[in-house]
């Protein structure tokens, strides 16, 4: 406890009262760093236990990494003592190298100023494995890129070919029907009789029809046979199509298909036609070319001009191909 000094000119009682009112009581100072015997004993036991405990692999790896990072972050060029203790730097100093200068001849601007950085290898792969893996991944990526581009181009080419094939097939069917109609018209003009061109069932056997348009006739007759078979199933006919009733009139026979034409149709469709199969195996462009040539030579008709010329010269026609008419 501290007391203020007496003030001059004041009585002793007044000074005592003021001293009593102004005195301060200091808080007791506790030494926090002072340990008791028990605390010190426990601390020493903990320290001894920590010193006696072997460090784990993770702790040793962390300490090793820290020491290595600290060593790699320290430049030997900035340490003058290193020129004597480090053999490599001492050898370079004897050869004329001075710390801070670049390697190479004097005046070269592309000389190296800093040592090569050390890349610590943490995996178990051998030397060159990482570069080989990178090369393999790069090659695989390039292969995938080329394959994607190839597949894209192949897809576009395939779609283009499919569209072109469908377009040519449609033109082949149209050219077949034109040839069939023109041939029927010429036969009618020559014989004066009506032919069965364009009808569902042809009265002429299939093999006697020109192979150029025999396919469209066969397709039409197959559809007619299917239609009649469905009709027979719906009507639940109890008799065969070849059965002939002598009391049945001709119109009824024509309506029911029992006049013999249907029987000939079934026989024609069941027979194999190698000539037609060979023609159908041709490309659509080749079949169309044969049909166009037949129309030009036999009927003086240009499929591309859509015009029938008066003579075989086809005067005014630019050519026999589609490209000639573009």
UniProtKB/TrEMBL annotation:
One of its GO terms (cellular component) is kinetochore. Residues 38-62, 237-257 are annotated as: Disordered. One of its GO terms (molecular function) is nucleic acid binding. Residues 45-62 have a biased composition (Basic and acidic residues). PROSITE patterns: G_PATCH. It comes from the Eukaryota. Pfam families: DUF4187, G-patch. Residues 84-132 form the G-patch domain. This is G-patch domain-containing protein. It comes from Blumeria hordei (Barley powdery mildew).
């Amino acid at each position: 406890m501290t007391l203020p000094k007496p003030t001059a000119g004041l009585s002793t009682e007044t000074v005592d009262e003021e001293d009593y009112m102004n005195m301060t009581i200091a808080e007791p100072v506790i030494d926090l760093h002072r340990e008791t015997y028990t605390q010190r004993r426990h601390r020493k036991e903990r320290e001894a236990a920590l010193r006696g405990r072997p460090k784990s692999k993770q702790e040793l790896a962390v300490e090793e990494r820290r020491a290595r990072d600290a060593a790699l972050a320290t430049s030997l060029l900035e340490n003058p003592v290193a020129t004597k203790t480090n053999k490599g730097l001492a050898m370079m100093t004897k050869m004329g190298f001075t710390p801070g200068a670049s390697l190479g001849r004097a005046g070269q601007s592309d000389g190296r100023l800093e040592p090569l950085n050390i890349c610590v290898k943490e995996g178990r792969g051998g030397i060159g494995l990482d570069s080989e893996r990178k090369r393999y991944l790069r090659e695989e990526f390039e292969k995938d890129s080329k394959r994607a581009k190839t597949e894209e181009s192949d897809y576009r080419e395939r779609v283009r070919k499919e569209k072109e094939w469908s377009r040519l097939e449609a033109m082949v069917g149209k050219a077949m029907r034109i040839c069939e109609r023109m041939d029927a018209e010429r036969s009618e003009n020559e014989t004066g009789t009506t032919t069965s061109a364009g009808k569902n069932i042809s009265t002429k056997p299939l093999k006697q029809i020109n192979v150029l348009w025999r396919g469209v006739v066969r397709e039409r007759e197959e559809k007619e046979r299917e239609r009649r078979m469905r009709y027979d199933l719906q009507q639940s006919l109890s008799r065969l199509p070849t059965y002939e009733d002598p009391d049945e009139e001709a119109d009824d026979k024509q309506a029911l298909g029992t006049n013999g034409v249907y029987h000939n149709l079934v026989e024609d469709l069941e027979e194999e036609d190698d000539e037609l199969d060979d023609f159908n195996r041709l490309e659509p462009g080749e079949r169309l070319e044969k049909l166009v040539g037949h129309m030009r030579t036999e009927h003086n008709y240009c499929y591309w001009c859509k015009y029938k010329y008066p003579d075989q010269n086809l005067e005014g026609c630019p050519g026999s191909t589609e490209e000639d008419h573009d």
